[in-house]
Design brief:
- With 137 residues, the chain is of the alpha+beta class.
- The chain has helices at residues 55-62, 119-131; strands at residues 2-8, 12-13, 19-20, 23-29, 33-39, 47-52, 67-71, 77-81, 91-95, 98-101, 104-109, 114-115.
- The longest helix is centred in the last third of the chain and has 13 residues, at 119-131.
- The two termini are 43 Å apart.
């Protein structure tokens, strides 16, 4: 959520003697925490986490520089490392015929606006991950 505050700067006069005022805008970024489910490669149990709803926090959590999304059949969003295939990260979750590399974070919402999960959603996602988990020993 962005909040814009106007701050009045002290008045000054210009060369013509006219009074001028300026306004300074400051944008305070207040990121909200969302509940999500994360699946790490090689671990059969997924974890429920709270993460700030920012790109940098999500990238740090899944261990990447840039992520991409894919829609799950149930309408949720899976977030994973965009360069995971190129970097040959271990596969963790299978979605249809596609296997996703590295840690996979699952949230609700749309491709650009992520939302937190409800308790019922978390249970459904954890069951889905148990059925579609990839274990490579």
């Amino acid at each position: 959520m962005n909040s814009t505050q106007k701050k009045k700067c002290p008045s000054t006069t210009n060369a013509k003697g006219k009074r001028k005022t300026s306004t300074l805008r400051s944008v305070a970024q207040n990121s909200e925490k969302i509940k999500a489910v994360i699946q790490y490669p090689g671990q059969p149990a997924s974890k429920v986490v709270q993460v700030n709803n920012t790109k940098s926090a999500i990238c740090q959590l899944i261990g990447c520089k840039c992520f991409t999304t894919v829609k799950l059949p149930s309408g949720y969003i899976a977030i994973y490392d965009k360069d995971g295939y190129r970097l040959e990260k271990r596969l963790s979750v299978r979605i249809g015929t596609k296997s996703l590399p590295g840690a996979v974070l699952i949230v609700s919402g749309s491709d650009k606006h992520f939302k937190g999960l409800l308790t019922a959603d978390i249970q459904n996602i954890r069951e889905y991950l148990l059925r579609n988990f990839i274990y490579i020993g």
